[in-house]
Amino acid sequence: MDTAITGLDQGALSAVARVARIDRGWSTAYRSMDEARGAAPPLRVRNIGADVAVGDWILPDADGERVAEVLPRKSAFVRRASFDGMRAVSDTLAANVDTVFLVHSLGSPPSPRRLERELVLAFDSGADPVVVATKPDLVGEVDAPLAQLREVALGVPVWVASGKTGRGVDALRRRAEGNRTLTFLGASGVGKSTLVNALLGGARQATSEVRDGDQRGRHTTVAAELLPLPDEGWIIDTPGVRAVSLWLSGDGIERAFADVFDLMDHCRFRDCKHDREPGCAVRAAIESGELDPIRLTSLERLVEEEAALEEEQRARERAADRRAGGRTRPPDAAEFDDSWDD
């Protein structure tokens, strides 16, 4: 049983199940390890009207036919819904995750801007992020790209792992000790499914070749799925995410850009715009080479993106209020989408 489940009596605990897969109105959920390992049939329940994600702990109704309650989450990966017209609607990618591996392939140049977004998402989720650099066999020297990742990760562990050779896989597996849950976030073709296969001890997830030109791959995982590890712990395997569309940030932006915010605290004026103001610590750091100006620009863009999303939410709420004759109502369940790609 997960540490996220607290305050339930024995009767409720015996009925709790964990969502393993979602298929358009239905949830497959596990009540025991026998069900997770295929030795017994899992629970299948309707989830219409329930905000449910893979990894959620749920209580079915008395008939065992639908989700009656989604238990409080200890962590959740929430992003903006990925289809046109629904930008102001959230989409929960995975729930109750302990460690998220942010996977980047060494076979292509590092993407600092993508890693920044992934770190914001990870920090806001409540899970512990670890950056994982894969495919070290494709490069002769790994120190330079790893240094680029560490410059953005700001104290977050940066590991090298290969699902093909087994390098670093034991370190990933140790993160599942204590029956903890792992997940991977990264673009298609970076080697997530190969790592999942290595952790599971077999070719559980399909893999495909990447293009020679840009090392990009096709989606080999098409739906999020909760999988038990051989000894203890769980993996939530996820499809590749082409674009990391952020939802409203808690302290994720501040944590991902802690270096810039530390500099801002030393500006002469509290309302400094970091442009031409005297005594601007940020501009001084840029001029001295301490801070990459692109990093400040990236921060400003993310803050603007969040402000635009907040305004879209307010506009959507006003429109819903008008449709309801002045009585604001929650969004319809049908408005939530389970697509992962932008």
Describe the protein in words:
The chain is an alpha/beta fold and 342 residues long. It has 2 domains: 10-70, Beta Barrel (OB fold (Dihydrolipoamide Acetyltransferase, E2P)), CATH 2.40.50; 75-256 and 292-342, Rossmann fold (3-Layer(aba) Sandwich). It has 10 helices and 13 strands. It has helices at residues 10-15, 33-36, 112-125, 143-153, 169-174, 192-200, 252-256, 258-264, 281-288, 293-323, and strands at residues 17-23, 26-30, 43-46, 57-60, 67-70, 76-80, 90-95, 99-105, 128-134, 158-160, 181-185, 225-228, 234-237. A 6-stranded mixed β-sheet has the order 10-9-8-11-13-12, with helices on both faces. A 5-stranded antiparallel β-sheet has the order 3-2-1-4-5. Strand 8 (99-105), helix 3 (112-125) and strand 9 (128-134) form a beta-alpha-beta unit. The longest helix is centred in the last third of the chain and has 31 residues, at 293-323. The two termini are 34 Å apart. The model is unreliable at 210-221 and 331-342 (pLDDT under 50).
Summarize the structure.
By secondary structure, the chain is of the alpha/beta class.
Q: Mind sketching the topology for me?
A:
Blueprint: H1 10-15, E1 17-23, E2 26-30, H2 33-36, E3 43-46, E4 57-60, E5 67-70, E6 76-80, E7 90-95, E8 99-105, H3 112-125, E9 128-134, H4 143-153, E10 158-160, H5 169-174, E11 181-185, H6 192-200, E12 225-228, E13 234-237, H7 252-256, H8 258-264, H9 281-288, H10 293-323
Parallel strand pairs: 8-9, 8-11, 9-10, 11-13
Antiparallel strand pairs: 1-2, 1-4, 2-3, 4-5, 6-7, 12-13
Helix pairs in contact: 3-4
